[in-house]
Amino acid sequence: MTGLVRRLGLSLLGPVLAVLVALVISAVVIALIGEDPVEAFRVMVDLGDSPSQQVQSIVVVLNRAVPLFLAGLAVAVAFRMGLFNIGVEGQYRMATILAAAVGAAVALPGPLHVLLIVVVAMVVGAVWAGIVGVLKVTRGVSEVISSIMLNFIALGLASFLLTGPLRGSAPGASIVTTSEIPESGRVPSLNGLLTALGLAAPRSGLYGFLVVAVVVGVVVAVLLQRTRFGFDLRATGLSPSAATVSGVDARGMVVKTMLISGGIAGLIGLPDLLGSQYDYGTEFTAGLGFLGIAVALLGRSSPVGIALAGLLFAFLDRAALPLQFADIPSSVVTIIQGTIVLAVVIANEVARRLALRSAERAGASAGPDPGAGGDDGAPPPTGPDGGQRVRTGVPGTPEDVQA
Amino acid sequence: MKAAAVLLAGSMALAACASDEPTGTGSGEGGAGAAPEELRIGLAYDEGGRGDQSFNDSAYAGASAAADALGAELQELSPNEDASNRAELLTQLAEQGFNPVIAVGFAYDDVIAEVAPQFPETTFAQVDGSNADGAKGDNVTGLVFAEEEGSFLAGVAAALKSESAHIGFVGGVESPLIEKFEAGYVAGAQTVNPQIRIDRQYISPAGDFSGFSDPARGQIVAQGMYDAGADIIFHAAGGSGLGVFQAAAASGNRAIGVDSDQYLTVGPELQPVVMTSMLKRVDNAVEQFINDYAEGNVQGAEDVLSDLSTEGIGLATSGGFIDDIQDDIQQYSQQITDGTITVPTTVE
């Protein structure tokens, strides 16, 4: 029991330490530019005066967190397998533009229309990521290189499609977009639910896609923790050679993992697309795929952790506005986000070493203790976390998956 | 993991509780003396925010000049990194009673059309966004510019000054707005010399806004053109323009700046290469709009056009590099103003 507590404490140590360190560094920076750190943090957590403003602030945070969560999840699935999928950015851009085009081109009854758009997005994302997987297992191309390269191709291709065959906006318009998705293809907001809960009605709609994100999160959690496939995936991530010896098809796992990662990546753009934008255009939110890497790192590649990390990033993002009203530069938020990511990588490493040392000590004094873990869903002492995976995923280290 | 969740959630809940404590003044500490009918100006920037040494800073210059003159409060807001919260910027400003609210950049096109009707008592303006047909609401004024006219003159200057009859154009991001610059520039250069060779390239494709803030790639693109024989390059690439100037300096050629008089903003080592700049006086337009508003002269649902005739668009003369061709430039300027020359706004 004490071993479990110690392990849980150690797995907590990384992220909590990282957030604390980031806050301290940010406070120092705020003080250095002549502002009051306490005042700054107070402003950041101030959600507004009236109930409707407060609900609106929460809606803004949630709406931002949904795509971040999906992005983090897409990155994390690959992380757990020891794959560094940097191509999430390109995968979701390709998926979003094609899903938007298909959604605008067809007319179907409500749920079917949405389902079609979702399926198209997931398939496109999976295919785009699948290229990376196939290149890796057939030609031995590092997924880091190929996914970065595919990002550029995706960006260029999306731009070509948008300004060429899929252009739906008027010729003179400053913002080039695809045609709008009709009413039946949109996901209604959850505002009805909020008011039913007795909360004030917010100004903008809470994305209905929040439900989809939660479902995807649960499915991924179950898949990773409760299925044979998830076990193989994690085992391959922890030790490719051991997994191969025990009969796991490492090559097949790489392709399957990339397909799943890409499929989730395909969903990233949909909350915005189906909840507020209804078309893909030159102003469509970019960079979510890269933010997802930071979110996955902070969340240590576990669905719950990623949800919290996504909420934290979304919360910080919203805080940039009230900070500016209080005449504090909003760059403070960027500094906090940056230091959190940096700190989390370092803290993960520190926590890993501490865990290793305590496990060694426990192993030396009481033999059976280390073997007790692994059946309770809690991570093993070394923690199959993003921080560790990232080190092994960096090019230049020996090829990790191919035996 | 579960405990981690609880702890993080707990800390966030604690943080949320802290906000319920009674606090002093919330926001709006920017203003000086609080006259009862004080003018409170809201300014929402485009991607990049304040400090981009370009478009946003120009809007700030105009707004702060007007605010100083009128004793008004000025509240600026920059969007987040990926500029996904533009709608929040406008609603927050309107909600907190800022009036007028000025949005900087065409990227606010959709957003302002959505937000403005929700705040009929607030007067909005959008830099670079047209509202001539009132589609964005009766309370929105478009502050638009005839960039093609100034770019035409830049093309004239480049063609007159080029010794190799080979010039270049570097656009930041492939978009309808930047194509206006390109169209005018090409038309101007070809009017002077129909045989002139014009290399044209954009730094990033549509939808990827990195092209406005990537001096390194600006330098590479420009270097390629100079190597190919171009001797003057006009850039419409925001912050990436610095790279164009550096490429010009490194290869002993010249470049034309954009938006502000860049001869005055680049360092002394780059000044010799900034032959002229195509001026787009966002500052003047914003200042004028605020003054008009203060005097009650804003109608809404209309465009205020800045062009050569209003001197909201022009060609800078700092450095004296184009003094010898001023007569020609004046002549073309006159022909554009009186309608003899119609400058295209799209690339054919």
Automatic annotation (TrEMBL), chain A:
The chain crosses the membrane at residues 12-34, 54-79, 91-108, 114-137, 144-162, 206-224, 288-316, 328-347. The keyword Membrane applies. One of its GO terms (cellular component) is plasma membrane. Keywords: Cell membrane, Membrane, Transmembrane, Transmembrane helix. Pfam families: BPD_transp_2. It is a multi-pass membrane protein. One of its GO terms (molecular function) is transmembrane transporter activity. InterPro entries: ABC_transp_permease. It is found in: Cell membrane. CDD domains: TM_PBP1_transp_TpRbsC_like (cd06580). It comes from the Bacteria. Residues 362-403 are annotated as: Disordered. PANTHER family: ABC TRANSPORTER, PERMEASE PROTEIN (PTHR47089), GUANOSINE ABC TRANSPORTER PERMEASE PROTEIN NUPP (PTHR47089:SF1). This is Nucleoside ABC transporter membrane protein.
From TrEMBL, chain B:
InterPro entries: BMP_lipoprotein (IPR050957), Peripla_BP_I (IPR028082), PnrA-like (IPR003760). It is found in: Cell membrane. Transmembrane segments: none annotated. The keyword RNA-binding does not apply. Its main location: membrane. Keywords: Cell membrane, Lipoprotein, Membrane, Signal. The keyword Cell inner membrane does not apply. Pfam families: Bmp. It comes from the Bacteria. Residues 46-345 form the ABC transporter substrate-binding protein PnrA-like domain. One of its GO terms (cellular component) is plasma membrane. It is a lipid-anchor. This is Nucleoside-binding protein. It comes from Geodermatophilus obscurus.
